[in-house]
Structure formats: C-alpha cells, structure tokens
Amino acid sequence: MGEMMTPLSDSDKRELLRLAREAIDAAVRQKPFPPVDTARLSPALLRQGTCFVTLTESGELRGCIGGLHALDPLYEDARQHALQAATRDYRFPPVTPDEVPKLDIEISVLTEPQPLNYDAPEDLLRLLRPEVDGVIISQGYRRATFLPQVWERVPDPEMFLSMLCEKMGAPPDSWRRTKLEVQTYQVESFTEAELSMHRA
To answer: What structural domains and CATH numbers belong to the chain?
Structure first.
C-alpha cells in the first residue's frame, strides 16, 4: 500500500457526504438506512475503505467516530461511522432530529496504517510529520489515535504524544518511558462546506 490512495473525485466526496447525512437522518429517527443503488457508485466508493466522520455544530465538536482498518466498502463504512458519530460517541448525548440540519459533516478517508519503527523516544519527535500524519499508539490491549487534523490545535509533537497517551488512558509521559507500538496513516478529508453542500 503506497503513501496515498487514489484521490476521490468531487462527485465521490459529495456522494459520501450525502450518504453520511442520510444515515444520520435515519439513525436519529431510529429508521433503517435507505437502500443504496450501488450501480450508481464509482469504483472508489465500492472498494474497501475506512474513514472517520466528524460532526460539528456552530464550530463545536458534536461527535467523531471512525475506523482504522478497511473491512467494508467505503460507502458503507461512511454510513456506519456517521451513525456512530451521531448516536454512539460517549462524550456527547445522541444527536436529536432537530439538530441534524445544524450539523456540519467532515469525512476523513484513511490510508492503511503503517508501522513506524523507532528506537528512542526522541526519534518519534523527528519521525512524525505534523499536519500530515495521523498517529495510532498501542500498549497491550489499549490504543488511541489522533487524526492529522489534531495537529492544527496541538502543533508541538511532544504535547501531541502526551495528549495521545492520555487519550489511551496512560500517563502522559508514557511515550518517553516505554516503547509504544506506533503506526501512522494519512487522510483525505473534506467537508460539506468546502463542497458548498450545506443547506442553511
């Protein structure tokens, strides 16, 4: 698997965002997803892929859930993660039907995570590429990830790693003290606003 996947066309992005919004709309009303005419979908949406779906309301995070490994066709993965971001992000109450029109949806399609081999903690600071790399850390059965978008808020690699350790439920300096399993991935992310899709 190379560095980047084939870029999605604007029509692919619009289709994924439309499917995600349709899935959220169904989920918050406890209805099944509407059927998808897969004959209409491009090969890029039918191949296995995974993504994170991030929901914001007036610029504030409202839910964010995704997968790290591609198990389903990308279009179906986007629907499932949209449903989960809206109804199963434990940090927030489930989205209500009247909130759906206020949501802004961002989808981040992931490359397959690759192991990042390093010897000393300082190597990590040099090897991680701010703004480019999403990072997964694991220790035993625990793991956590930050999407590359997190670098915008936390540009300092030491702080980034410390916060990621905390997210995993470990002390913030774990990355300095123990050898973690580290993987990196990249994303192609896009929002309804960028594609001028959002209905006010």
So the answer is: 10-111+187-191 (3.30.700.20), 114-185 (3.30.1490.150)
